[in-house]
Queue: 4 jobs
Job 1
Amino acid sequence: MKSLISLVFICALSIILTAGNAVSQQNSVGNSKKVKTSSFHKKGKKIIDQKIINEIISDNQKSFKKNLRGTWLLDEDFESGNFPPINWINLNGSTEWEQAYVSGYGSGNYSMLYSSWQCNYSDNIIFTKDFTSNTQSGDKLIFDYAYAPYDDGNTYYDDLEIYYYDAVDEIYYSLVYYEGWELQTANGTDQYFQPQSNEWGTKIIDIPENASSIYFKVWENCGNNYYVDNIRVGAYAGGYDASVEILWGKGKIPLSYGVPDKIPVLIKNLTINPINNLMVNLNISGTNNLSDSFEIPYIGPLDTFQVDFLGFTPVLNGFSDITVSIPADDDNGNNVKTFISEANSNTRRYVDSNCCNSSVGWIGQLSFLNKYYMSGTGQIRNVNIKLPGDNAGQIVYGIVLNSSGTIVGKSPHYKIKASDQNTYKSFQITDPKPFIVTNDHYYVGIAQTEYAGNDFAYASQQMYYEIPARPDANYYSYLAPPGTNVNAYEFPREYGQNYAIESVMGKSGGSRCRSI
């Protein structure tokens, strides 16, 4: 089992994004394509709110198949092992563009990198060879990239600018200027950055007509390494590839309290062309049955779309397969997802019975919560938590919050036993009494007290690690006596934390409830 202790710090840093001044064009004389260089470099630190950086990293890590079909005027994957590649030119200053022994998304052996880690403030630039012909309207520049800033408590970013040669005007123009944070695919580090296969992104840029070559320049700030791979220029050809990325079913859904059910699904466009009118099909079979469909009007290149299916009403206790599918496309291996759901009398849970692949805990005293919705009136009697290993002797308790973030119920404090580990432990809500909720949201979870031993942290519960996490489901709060408003805060979905927390309900003179 993958074990992960999440050391979460609640803080708010201001974001300072200092705009850079890109050189708009560079002169050329005759056919020699001479390039004007500059000694201008940014200096100083940039402080970025970590939550925003996590969102940037998650957004940048969008990829599609490496073997794109197209009419390519330039197609360079650096796999020849020669650097620079044949007919490419490294020019000016200390040589910082060099061969790298990693490849985009781990597919291959080589790429190129600019080593700002060396901190030479180089003016080195690298030119592609001339394209096989000039670009036409609609052509794209596509490349894979990886970047992390240097971070020793202060964060130092390097910027990247790409130029193209206009064969008619006989001059180089700036095509695009990226601030370093715009290309960040991994967290900052004070170590030499070498990307893992999942720490890459892909950029797709419109390139003007009559371009015949490009070059890359890093505006260095003594930061860290830029990696570039799989550079293509031309017209993308072919169909499309969409995928059913995530199906957020419910592991348990109660007949008396959980209908109708809402089933969210995340669909992704893995190609650089937009997808129009994509049909997504839902089929539930087994003890309970349902069929439904939804047409997505538009998904942009490398973008995602969340579909929300409504109306699943189980009528019998038992297991059902929830299957979501999309029509055949260029890769049918990612077109179907299935989730097993158990209809039962009184228990609601997000994760399935196979959960979990990770565990999570706090430094200090806070809680982990799942958010549910009650339709009608019901009573929250127990909270069940799947406890991880290696936490025997720690003190925890079950907790319930109302929609306002006020603590409305808790269980007695409990010292975890070795026999509780890797099982669901039930915490009965008694203080002040089981909470009654009517037509409203509520939160159930585990309260983690301070570490009872000689260490500083422990994992208080298990979870299913999957990015992005289920929407509007996984929260945390501070601890206080019942009756205290502590608020509930949603974890960023890019943290990938999906908790194994069950809400056990009972009737309280009302009708029925549902989970969303």
Job 2
Amino acid sequence: MQSLKQRVEAVLRSASPRTLRVMDIVKRLGLRPTQRRLVRHALRELSREGKVHRFKAQRYGILGAPEIVTGKLEIAAKGYGFVRIHLREGMERVADVFIARRNLATGVHGDTVAVRMIRRPGEKPEGRIAEVLARGRAILVGQFQHGKRGGIGMPRDQRIGRHVSISHVPARLRVENGAWVVVKITDWTSGRDPLLGTIVEVLGDKKMPLTDVLLVVRDYGVQPEFPKAVLRAAREVAKVIAPEELARRQDFRPMRTITIDPVDAKDFDDALSIEVLENGVFRLGVHIADVSHYVAEGSLIGKEARERGTSIYPVDRVIPMLPDALSNTICSLRPDEDRLTMSVIIDVDSNGQVRDYRFYEAIIRSRFRMTYEEVEAVFDRSDPWILSKYQSVQDDLLALKALSDRLRQVRAERGSLDLDMPETEVIFNSAGQVVDITRKIRLASHRLVEECMVLANEVVAQHLFWLKIPSLYRVHEKPAREKLERIVPILANLGITLRSSRGKIVEQLQAVLTRAEHLPHGYMIRRLILRAMMRAQYSAENKGHFGIASACYTHFTSPIRRYPDLVVHRILRESMGGRQLTDDRQQELAQGLPAIAQLATDREDRADVIEREAMLVKSLEFMHAFLGEEFEATVSGIANHGVYVELDQYPVEGLIPLRNLPSDSYEYDEERLLLKARKRGITFVLGQRVLVSLERVDLVNRRMDFGFKKIL
């Protein structure tokens, strides 16, 4: 069954190169005039994907020719920009398109734009912005300065490149000079003219430090607090399970269920149980908080969850997708409390193959709330007190480990790639000050939980796929060979051979990753490969998941913190017990899921950016105390403007600018990613060990500069 979006695209392709108005498309599809709103929605989705462009006079056409491309605009410090092109089907990889400042039109950093190419033979791609398809942000955070008429806001993000003119300042806000404010943009002016806006919120006075994470969060349009109506609705949710609800559910309370989470976790959305049958089959239970029972589609809480898309974890706080009354209480699988779950019981044989599975609307009572470190202590038998405390569940934990090890081996055999990067942890004291930054150690207990969750996600995805029920999928497409070919010479420079033009891509990548495990700079090789990959995203179409070698994958296991999981729960519930979805419901899902997938992907991307930037500002705050000190480091990146290094002592990265390298003229080899001094013969390459000194910590531009001492 084709979705409306696919049908709209087909109509435009059949009309190409001519363009059509919305009503032309409505008529060609045989729709009613009242359905033009749905067609406009489909056109917006196609525009965002770079398949369709809106031309003058409200006419739409297929982007079949290379004259117009779409992508994300990034502004450089000097005011010009680059557009990272969204590749469409059949389109060859192209370099980022340069946009001169005079050709930015109304575009600002982060916008999704349509670019009309400027043909200049022999030069790098250049274009001018034809249209802003979607604004990267609707608000900005900046510092306010009073003027004769209102005032101006100086954006915190220097990449915006323009200040905001504020004509009226409400007296009730009592805004002082230098105060940090949230500004809503009312007019995206062009060229070098100031943007126009109004103040909607005062965050703090001029003493509020640049490293305050709230500035980062609000600058990306996230409001940490929930609307009062949503909080009120959450408080009104029944906290006691009704007898009739209890009677109709599968009672798993006698079962030994365990939650395994970080030591500081507040919400627990998954629990595990296991039984080893006489024939050697593992009977795994994956029990997921039944958020969908409490959060109805279209409800106030549901709409807010959809808009948020995901919980965000910016270093020193949590910005939850659901109010605390749900996420930390009635939906959280807290120990020794009755909780509603969506449970999947999976029988897995000794070869790691799924033999049977069953879904239940259930009720459980978690028996053990364990941390990753406690589970690890059981595995290595390092702590007698822990062994004694969890003696009754040791056999379960060992069985879970044996199962997860087998599942991991099976995934590796079918082509799964281990691309996990070491995570960074910021340590705070009681006053909220950063006292240390460390690399998190990846434990066997982490892998145990991940393997069980991956299996449950696969089982749910395949179940819905084979029932031909519209659903959401977590997809990760195969990397473009052109992207892999770009890293071949870089890897060769590190002593790693990748023959991207021969053999299966996955086998080549597995061999590289295996070799990298035994190299001191192996994590950098992982990072190179990761950057050559496509990004995982949500989709209403099953395209498989390349990274974990899954033909069919979804997200089902974290409905407290991810909206797509909540959607999948609703769809699964509707299809359980042999129930059939009506044709109208299937059509509704088919039309609505693409927009949900796109919004969820966008919100995930936003959360990633916020978390990275929050980590960066706190790293800068911490490192400021080490100005002038020397550190051993590893070269982590090469650019034409200098050498990036990552410190051994702390997982932070900074730049050795060209001016801080030994005096010489330098040749930048982009293909092999190296920087060579023409006279001295010094060459900087990835993975090289160097001694550096911290010269500058720039909180405004969010960067660290190092001085070069010597090659180690």
Job 3
Amino acid sequence: MKLIRSTSATSYLMYLCTLLLCTGIVHAQIDGAIYAWGRNNYGQCNVPDPNSGFVTIAGGDNFCLGLKSDGTVVAWGDNAYGQCNVPAPNSDFIAVTTGAYHSLGLKSDGTVVAWGRNSYGQCNIPAPNSDFIAIAAGRIHSLGLKSDGTIVCWGDNYTGQCDVPATNSNFVALAGGRYHSIGLKSDGTVVTWGSNSFGQCIVPAPNSDFTAITAGSYHCLGLKSDGTIVAWGWNDDGQCNIPAPNSDFTAIAAGAFHNLALKSDGTIVTWGKNNDGQCSIPAPNSGFVAIAAGAHHSLGLKGEWTIVAQGLNDSGQCTVPAPNIDFTAVAGGSFHSLGLFSEGAIAACGLNDDGQCNIPAPNSDFIAIAGGMYHSLGLKSDGTVAAWGNNTFDQCGIPAPNSGFIAVAGGGLHSLGLKSDGTVAAWGNNNHGQCDIPVPNSGFIAIAGGEYHSLGLKSDGTVVAWGKNTSGQCDIPAPNSGFIAITGGESHCLGLKSDGTVAAWGNNFYGQCNVPAPNSGFMTISGGSHHSLGLKSCGTVIAWGDNCFGQCDIPAPNSDFMAIAAGGHHSLCLKRSYSTSVEETESCEIPGSAILTIVSLSPNPFNQFTGISFETQTSAHVTMEIYDVSGRRLRTIPVGHVGAGLHQACWYGCDDNGNNATSGVYFVCLYGTGGEPQTARAVLIR
């Protein structure tokens, strides 16, 4: 586990930026299902039902531990020494780890609980049992990291694996091998001690820039800030031979004689001994958010991001195709729906009379989606746009050159694309001038389409509208400033202001422009034919306007949503499957409930990175996520466990794949265990 330690030093902030944002960690604040493979002689690969709600995993010799989002621990496999008997009360756990035949759990109050085989005192926590922020275990010894950066070891010490070298300070992570131990310092160096029979304690030069560590029986792995892995020690089974390309890794885990590494695209790479199939990853190898290794088996945790749909379903537009899991974005057409998988594929459902649900091959590498009335758009990672469905007005005919696009939007029978140079391209039906971009065609950072009108958001926070204006949908209300997001309905518009308020204008026959009070705390917006949606920073959705088909009836519980999209007469919400917020449909401000508070973002606006200062009232697991103004999640940064106090992190302006985000407004969301999520707005200027 990696963590942030309280500090006020600028130099340490820069270290934290590298530690937290250039890498991932084994623990993930995402609720999901566990996949297990390899040796199964004790049922260690048979995950108990219900296989959901897990946030982190650990593997022992022949048993496993899974930590649920509610703080409970599930254990299965070999139980000869009681290593699967979680002591009561089984609650408030924030981390778990395993030795050969014993288990450790870290509680939210900083205490450690140990159970299982205790022949060498590996379960006897040294006093004072307090202030722990991370735990690790070797075969028959245990390690704990204190909030002051010191490491405590207990259990078998035959080879000196419990003798932490001087100076015992400034540690930020730890790991245990069979008879040796490893510690990661805040300056990115690795310290090792204990048995060195196979060179497992000789860190290869240069001993610098490490961000994560793990240990097998007689070998070690270190993850560097550039996403490469270094391995040393016993190599008879090839466990130190990193597969090419040695790049883009975000997390590492070591078994007895094999390894797993997680790539930034959610795939797992394995190498080393495979006599029990511990390196044979089950298909599909995608969507993983965390990894763990037992002695001869492996574990992978998949994320669960599901789509919730409500409203008119006459064409199946609210019937999400299976598997309803691992989505990262949603979009709605008039009578069809689109969902974007984390692996880059698109799923579609609903009316398909014009082929608007027939995703063109190859269905891969998409990073954004949009729906028109009867057509669909997808943006590829290489900056090209694909379009399909009704093409009566050539709304699917992408104008040349089909390159350099960074966003797409669908109008009724026309399409819009935003280029990386800040210009807008429009094509399709132009009977009301909805494709005639006003001059100067420059400085745009976001686009949106209505039925017969178009919208563009400029980098100075002003909105430009053009096309049909019979209902005033192109008349931006004063003051035309401070906007950070826009969306268009059939004949009405919504604009999100930098202070979290929503402005609405145009057709209001159904009340679709009457933003419910309190008009505050909004994070993103979406417009349907005659209804509107707003997502609050606490994860609740507000809907208003026409509700004849129930499109404004948000399914309970109204919490933990992370993106929204409005179709013609239906609504789509993307839901995270773990709960970090208290349900609240009117206001997200609950006095006294904040586990953490965002203190500042600096610099803001920023060009290369912005530092996020936040304060926690208690110890908590913290995850940081970055969203664009459309509600699409760009980056998930598992910060890890932090103690009470002031902490710092940063965002380097890139997405999960390392691609630079474009100029615009982004939302920085921090989630802490048991409390309200906190959101701040960051402005990126390239």
Job 4
Amino acid sequence: MVADVLVELSHVFIDKTFTYKVDVPIKVGVRVEVPFGKQVLEGFVLKVYSNPGNMELKSIIRVIDDIPVLNEELLLLGQYIKTETLCSLMSAYQCMLPLAYKAKKKSSVSLKKDKYIKLNDVNLSSYKFNSLQQKIVDILLKDSIVLKKNLDMVSSSSVKTLINKGVLVVIEREVYRLVHDDVDKISFNLNEEQRNVLSNILLDTYNTYLLYGVTGSGKTNIYMKLIERVIEEGKCAIVLVPEISLTPQIIKRFTSCFSNIAVLHSGLSDGEKYDEYRKIREGKVNIIIGARSAIFAPLSSIGVIIVDEEHSSTYKQDNNPRYNAIDIAKWRAKYHNCPLILGSATPSLESFARAEKGVYKLLCLKNRYNLNMPTVEIIDMNKEFKKSNGYFSSLLISEIQSRIDKNEQVILFLNKRGYSSIVSCPSCGDVKKCPNCDISLTYHKSSNMLRCHYCGYAERKNDECINCHIPYRDMGIGTERVVMELEPLINGARIVRMDIDTTTGKNSHKNIIESFARGDYNILVGTQMIAKGLDFPNVTLVGVINADISLNFPDYRSSENTFELLNQVAGRSGRGDKHGLVLIQTFNPDHYAISYTKSNDYIGFYNEEMKIRNKLGYPPYFYICLIRIISSDYDISSKVSIKLSSFLRKNNGCIVLGPSMCNMFKVNNKYHFQIILKYKDKNKIVSDLVKINEHYFNNKSVKVEIDFNPMKL
């Protein structure tokens, strides 16, 4: 017998299998070690068959797995990802697996085991014990089996002596690294609107449903009732959330109704991912909750796939392979003949357009579960700025103080971390910039460091300009500055900050969320990670410090992103019994993305934005493909981008825009150009893109990235 093996050679474009002789029984989808030139590599077995013509072949060195890490479905899914994203087949398979299961040398992760002690089957009266040894024996006579580390606290040397004498026996038991907190089980009922929605979802049939429900309308309750039905049928469910920060709260909600839950996201350690993945493979769980990568969970019988906050850009992978988890969810739902639920209070324009055309089935929740929508007020900072307290309007300050005095809680949203976004000299105008990137450094006051949020460069801040010897001026505002300037303005303020800088530690998301939910803090300041899905019943005020940050970003989605963010963060207010208020500070109060937020009018915004997209030829009227040309040599990246645009313009199946400099032109000493393709039929352009991809894959002087339907331009 022989086997076709796909080997791990990510540094070169060899996207094909190699044939090896098989000396032992072997299954398709397992990992093997094979000789490859002078190297020993790992790879996946993709085919096993009889040796045609008795070819002279090298033998497989070792079979790594007993059970295939890639089942039949995942093998087919890898082919789909390769075709859709133009990646190599190996990168498609590798992205599905945690580190412990990748075809990669030196990537093993071991089981975690605890050591237990029990008495051996011996005659204890024939032994003489000292006082500590007797105490250990007495403990085991009472409890029969005890953790070794607990007995070591009595006397580790005595435990060792008793083991050597044969009195005690050591037993190892596997333990999972990730343990969910015990939560009391609860029951809940759906209201009439929710029941109507649930009754329209058909199990055992593939359909994509768009569940459009205002914030706080109880979409999660529908998810849970739907999963109840799926589990009754003996099937499993996948629930995707866009942010790691949402995972602790949604896990708590689900564990209040279900057992046998696994969690998969990038915040887990390699060992935790290994444990969770094995539980899934071994059929020990029936609900998987996680971020983007959880869509690859190796379930054998899926009854429903749920994508919460479907509009979120985090479902799109930024690096190779550039897949969208929603596309993968559609493929898997079709494979398992089950429903796919896309839920959002602010659906992406593409999704809502598909629902209007009948491609998706539209389900609506128009009312909050508590029938208590928050009041939204717009504050014109053009009028307020001179009389305001720095970056805070007088109304915002007074309302924050009012909430604190009533023992209620406040969320303040600003989608910018750090202390200030620009440090400049007021005399010569010099701006402190990253030496590696074409971007100003962000000042972090707590560490007195200037940092680049793109390449990681950092330097200590000088007090004054080296040319003018005049103190630098901090311009712009970030979450760190919000906290520092707000504290002296509010009596009784207990503020916690949640952004990338404060959530790098293990369980930091969970700890901040739980401490705020307990009431340890009464003000939560954060970036977009606090805008979605979080549920704090005592939050009655949400303040948006600067609604214009995302609005001014040079991207065709900027208005949509702004409307989504504002509506999502506004939805954190008034989710309990108390009425909520939302204050949005802006310098563009008349912009439709902001005015429609005030009236909570998604349909109005959708119609307005669709007119603009239609005129400009952007999604959903056209598909977009972004081609990035990246090189450390400016001339090379410029020349290649011109060459590629000329080549692509010969294709009548698309509109070619560019080349032009990317919004972030220089990052980490590499120059970025881009070409944008607008098209309606992917089949007309894909052959040209395949040629480009293969031609530049191994080019050491320039990198060409192809990104279908990018979330950012």
